[in-house]
Amino acid sequence: MSSAEPTIFERIIAREIPADIVHETDTIIAFRDIAPQAPVHLLVVPKTSRYRDVAELAAGDPALLAEVVATAQLLATEHADGHFRLIFNTGANAGQTVFHVHAHVLAGGLTEGSLAH
Ligand code: 5GP
């Protein structure tokens, strides 16, 4: 559930802070990561702040999770060659810093075998 303090992504969704938005529907927004780790590094973010991470999203709304994956595929096709790496950092000890579920879509010139984000 959303906490009292809105996350940075809620503020981007509300247009309170700017972002380079590349895709938006009623349920999902996607924008460029401010600190890109690959030639194409996009964040695909469900607009709802109900789910903190992908495990909660999978349990609570699997159709919305499928929409996140389909959006990643669409954007990888639009912005690169259609191949992509999809990363969901889940929990602070795994590197999650924003507790509003989001997928990192990395594409374009990825190093083979690297799992680094
Ligand atoms: P996490 O570490 O939670 O998996 O991913 C959070 C991501 O959000 C990071 O890759 C970070 O660079 C990105 N990020 C943090 N603040 C902002 C911001 O204000 N704008 C954008 N576009 N990305 C941000």
Layout of helices and strands:
Elements: H1 8-13, E1 21-24, E2 28-32, E3 40-46, H2 54-60, H3 62-79, E4 85-87, E5 103-107
Helix pairs in contact: 2-3
The structure holds guanosine-5'-monophosphate.
**Residue ranges: pLDDT <50 for 5 or more in a row?**
none
Q: Strands of the largest sheet, in order across it?
A: 1-2-3-5-4
Task: Report the top-level CATH class.
Answer: Alpha Beta
Instruction: Give the overall silhouette.
Output: globular
Instruction: Supply Rg.
Output: 14 Å
Sheet with most strands: 5 strands, antiparallel
Q: Using the coordinates shown, work out and report the CATH topology.
A: HIT family, subunit A
Number of strands: 5
The oligomeric state is single chain
Write the element-wise H/E pattern from the N-terminal end onward: HEEEHHEE
Count of domains: 1
Q: Round the mean pLDDT to the nearest integer and report it.
A: 94
Beta-strand portion reads 15-25%
The CATH H-level homologous superfamily = HIT-like
First CA to last CA: what distance? 27 Å
What ligands can be seen in this structure? guanosine-5'-monophosphate
* Backbone structural class: alpha+beta
Helicity, in percent?
25-40%
Provide a count of the helices.
3
3D architecture notes:
With 117 residues, the chain is α+β, with helices and mostly antiparallel strands. It has a single domain, classed as 2-Layer Sandwich (HIT family, subunit A), CATH 3.30.428. It is 26% helix and 21% strand. It has three helices and five strands. The protein has a five-stranded antiparallel sheet with strand order 1-2-3-5-4, with helices on one face. It is globular and about 40 Å long. The model has no long low-confidence stretch (mean pLDDT 94). The structure holds guanosine-5'-monophosphate.
